[in-house]
């Protein structure tokens, strides 16, 4: 199959490289000439384990190319995927669809023989209808179908998620579109990836519903963690105890500083707006958003309490800044309100992150950036584990204690066991566990 992938952001680049790896012929298109030039030089604009090798291998094999001009690849394609950004619109939280619609207009001008235009970007219900209308208005005689094929990959595990998916959702009622997409994903059905065919609107809603449900699961266990701290219970065991029930499942029950990233906050906000637009307020999702925002802000108070309620003149060392490990992404990271809160309370902040410091410098210019965990701990009154990078899971506690001014650890990801920490002479505070 011949595929044109519009947008070389996270979803576009990973999907394009994986499709090429299946043996399809893929051209990735982006308006940003610098990005395309970098890709031609073999430089990958995002941090994703394994992506550079995957891109290089498929470029070498002649199955993957990059260009700024969509005319030829769209004209040749069996399927054109729209994988451009849908950021939160400034002011109202709605998804900003201007990039999607601009792509649709350009695709319309370039279509030749039958092609399926597929929205892979996360888009509100009804966007596929609008894309179809736009293309039809621009080219009344063009032969095309519009389908929705949402993406469920996680940053840091994107290639694995793409190649071994729990499901592939294909939203279209057009027979030819079903056939083309069925063929494109055929290699995955060999990996037992089940194809779920739905209507276009249903597929669009599945994406938001999945992210909102996962965000709800995290927020639920975070509230249980607060209660566990008060009543002297252990939230890790609560998560295990409820997760062993097949109806609940063990995943996404890890309590922490609140969810962040480029998807959950943006998509839950957009879903709330979609609900309001259709006179169906989504109270649970609204509550999830509010609870999560409060939680991120509360983390600075947790650090302050660990230091006796006084941060003025104290030095706080943060390990991890990105919203989760294995990414350099700082978008909506819990570290951002944490740093702001700590500084507002008069603390000096030092930090180390294995991949996110370049991005973090733009977002958080006023903190001291360090070379590694031990350099970061130097002279600190408290050390806070903010992101559970593998680098922070087996720290040399003796060395850490020697480096610090006071042996206080606030572990926002429950990486360590409380007993181990008290044996090592640390005052240890974690999430949802009595101390
Ligand atoms: C999320 C979904 O997991 C993907 O399925 C989806 O495709 C993607 O959004 C998207 O819409 O594009 P991602 O944002 O990369 O993926 O990251 P997750 O691993 O889901 O983590 C999101 C946030 O939840 C992080 O801040 C993480 O620390 C937090 N989290 C996750 C918890 O606090 N506890 C958990 O148990 C799991």
The stretches of 5 or more residues where confidence is low (pLDDT under 50) are none
Distance between the termini: 58 Å
* Helix share, percent: 40-55%
CATH class of the largest domain: Alpha Beta
Task: Please tally the helical runs, counting DSSP H or I stretches of 4 or more residues.
Answer: 18
Return Rg in Å: 24 Å
**What's the CATH topology name of the largest domain?**
Rossmann fold
Strand count: 14
> Biggest β-sheet, characterized?
6 strands, parallel
Mean pLDDT: 96
CATH hierarchy: architecture of the largest domain: 3-Layer(aba) Sandwich
Beta-strand residue percentage: 5-15%
In total, the number of domains comes to 2
Tell me the CATH superfamily of the largest domain: NAD(P)-binding Rossmann-like Domain
Structural class: alpha/beta
Q: Give the names of the bound compounds.
A: uridine-5'-diphosphate-glucuronic acid
Q: Walk across the major sheet and give the strand order.
A: 3-2-1-4-5-6
Broad shape: elongated
InterPro entries: 6-PGluconate_DH-like_C_sf, NAD(P)-bd_dom_sf, UDP-Glc/GDP-Man, UDP-Glc/GDP-Man_DH_C, UDP-Glc/GDP-Man_DH_C_sf, UDP-Glc/GDP-Man_DH_dimer, UDP-Glc/GDP-Man_DH_N, UDPglc_DH_bac
Pathway: Nucleotide-sugar biosynthesis; UDP-alpha-D-glucuronate biosynthesis; UDP-alpha-D-glucuronate from UDP-alpha-D-glucose: step 1/1
Catalytic activity: UDP-alpha-D-glucose + 2 NAD(+) + H2O = UDP-alpha-D-glucuronate + 2 NADH + 3 H(+)
GO molecular function: oxidoreductase activity
């Amino acid at each position: 199959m011949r595929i044109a992938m519009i947008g070389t952001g996270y979803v576009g680049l990973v999907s394009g490289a994986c499709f090429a790896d299946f043996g399809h012929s893929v051209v990735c298109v982006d308006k940003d000439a610098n990005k395309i030039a970098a890709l031609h030089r073999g430089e990958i604009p995002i941090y994703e384990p394994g992506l550079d090798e995957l891109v290089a291998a498929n470029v070498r094999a002649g199955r993957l190319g990059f260009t700024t001009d969509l005319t030829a690849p769209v004209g040749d394609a069996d399927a054109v995927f729209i994988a451009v950004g849908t950021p939160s619109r400034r002011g109202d939280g709605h998804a900003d669809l201007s990039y999607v619609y601009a792509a649709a207009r350009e695709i319309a001008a370039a279509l030749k023989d039958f092609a399926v235009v597929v929205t892979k970007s996360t888009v509100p219900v009804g966007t596929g209808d609008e894309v179809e209308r736009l293309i039809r208005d621009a080219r009344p005689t063009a032969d095309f179908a519009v389908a929705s094929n949402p993406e469920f990959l996680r940053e840091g595990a994107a290639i694995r998620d793409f190649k071994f998916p729990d499901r592939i959702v294909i939203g279209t009622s057009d027979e030819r579109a079903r056939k083309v997409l069925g063929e494109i994903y055929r290699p995955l059905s060999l990996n037992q990836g089940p194809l779920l065919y739905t209507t276009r609107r249903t597929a669009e809603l599945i994406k938001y519903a999945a992210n909102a449900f996962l965000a709800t699961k995290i927020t639920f266990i975070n509230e249980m963690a607060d209660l566990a701290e008060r009543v002297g219970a252990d939230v890790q065991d609560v998560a295990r105890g409820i997760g062993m029930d097949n109806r609940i499942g063990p995943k996404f029950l890890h309590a922490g500083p609140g969810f962040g990233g480029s998807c959950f906050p943006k998509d839950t906000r957009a879903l709330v707006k979609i609900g309001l637009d259709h006179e169906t307020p989504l109270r649970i999702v609204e509550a999830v958003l509010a609870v999560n925002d409060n939680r991120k802000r509360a983390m600075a108070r947790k650090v302050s309490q660990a230091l006796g309620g006084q941060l003025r003149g104290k030095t706080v060392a943060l390990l991890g800044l990105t919203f989760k490990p294995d990414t350099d992404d700082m978008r909506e990271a819990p570290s951002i309100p944490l740093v702001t809160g700590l500084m507002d309370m008069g603390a000096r902040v030092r930090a180390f992150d294995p991949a996110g410091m370049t991005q973090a410098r733009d977002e958080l210019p006023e903190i001291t950036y360090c070379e590694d965990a031990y350099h970061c701990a130097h002279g600190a009154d408290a050390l806070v584990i903010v992101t559970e990078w593998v680098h922070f899971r087996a720290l040399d506690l003796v060395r850490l204690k020697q480096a610090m001014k006071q042996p206080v650890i606030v572990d926002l990801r429950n990486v360590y066991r409380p007993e181990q920490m008290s044996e090592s002479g640390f005052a240890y505070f974690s999430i949802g566990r009595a101390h």
